[in-house]
Specification:
This protein is an alpha/beta fold and about 280 residues long. The chain has eight helices and nine strands. It has helices at about 15-50, 55-70, 100-105, 120-130, 140-155, 180-185, 220-230, 250-270; strands at about 75-80, 90, 110-115, 130-135, 155-160, 170, 190-200, 230-240, 275. The longest helix is centred in the N-terminal third of the chain and has 35 residues, at about 15-50.
Length: about 280
């Protein structure tokens, strides 16, 4: 997954001594919350396959995500009907915060490029959260389609970011259609649900505050959020689910999902309309 580099990032607001102290305290709470969640989640991950089912540990993941969003200063509002178990989700991608945003809704599993598995810390976290790593080699396509079908049959909700990059949070890029080819060969009945994530900062912050740029460090971004993210809102807006069989091909399916995400983005964005790039 690439990161947004088509425009200059906004200058972070100045962080005075008081905000620095508050950010440090919030950071400590966020770390303690993460450690507690991992301490409960990992034993469940190891033991649960022996008992059958995975719901308890996904409940822990949801609880961690919702608590983390609150600690970062974001209030979550859900619009529409969240996906059933065994559905695929396609969404716009604004920031690393999307991990928390989408983990908060169900049994979400991220689909990421294979290189992410080797990234320090992030790769370990992704594996712990059952991420599915995909390769671009055509020889791996059949195996990956089979794994995708198996995961959906297990009730996981596979999440894709068809834009292929993060953004400044003020636009929805065209959805890349090759991703949708995997759905064409699956059995009928698999639901594909478009969902828009809209980050609305507090009025004193720039509209692009929650965006993610290519030259931003994760630590620097997190520090800025801990120091200045108060009173923000995260909207998760779900469009009706569809099936690949309802469309003539992957391009039509990608176009429909992209249009739905843009429409739902516009419903809850202060700008009223996502910037569209063709």
């Amino acid at each position: 997954m690439s990161t947004w580099d088509e425009a200059d990032p906004p200058a972070p607001p100045p962080t005075g001594p008081l905000r620095a102290v508050v950010a440090a305290l919030r950071g400590v709470l966020l770390i303690l919350w993460l450690v507690l969640a991992i301490a409960i989640y990992l034993p469940l991950k190891w033991v649960q396959p022996l008992l059958g089912g995975r719901r308890p540990r996904y409940a822990i993941m949801r609880l961690w995500a919702r608590g983390s969003l609150r600690l970062i200063g974001l209030r979550r509002i859900v619009h529409g009907t969240p996906p059933p178990d065994g559905a695929a989700l396609v969404a716009n991608h604004s920031s690393w915060l999307d991990i928390m945003a989408f983990c908060s809704i169900g049994r979400t599993v991220f689909v990421a490029k294979s290189e992410v598995a080797d990234w320090p810390a992030i790769g370990w976290c992704a594996r712990m959260m059952d991420a599915m790593f995909v390769e671009r080699r055509s020889s791996a396509a059949a195996r990956q389609k089979l794994e995708m079908a198996e995961r959906l049959a297990q009730g996981q909700q596979l999440l894709f970011f068809p834009e292929g990059t993060s953004t400044d949070g003020q636009r929805v890029l065209p959805f890349k259609s090759p991703l949708f080819a995997a759905f064409a060969d699956m059995e009928s009945g698999i639901k594909i649900q478009p969902v828009a994530a809209i980050y609305v900062p507090a009025p004193h912050l720039p509209a692009t505050f929650y965006g993610w740029w290519g030259d931003m460090s994760l630590g620097g971004s997190l520090w800025t959020l801990l120091a200045h993210s108060y009173g923000g809102t995260l909207h998760l807006s779900f469009a009706p689910a569809v099936e690949a069989a309802d469309f003539a091909g992957r391009k039509e399916l990608a176009r429909h999902c992209g249009e739905q995400v843009r429409a739902h983005w516009a419903l809850h964005s202060p700008a009223g309309q996502a910037i569209t790039i063709s």
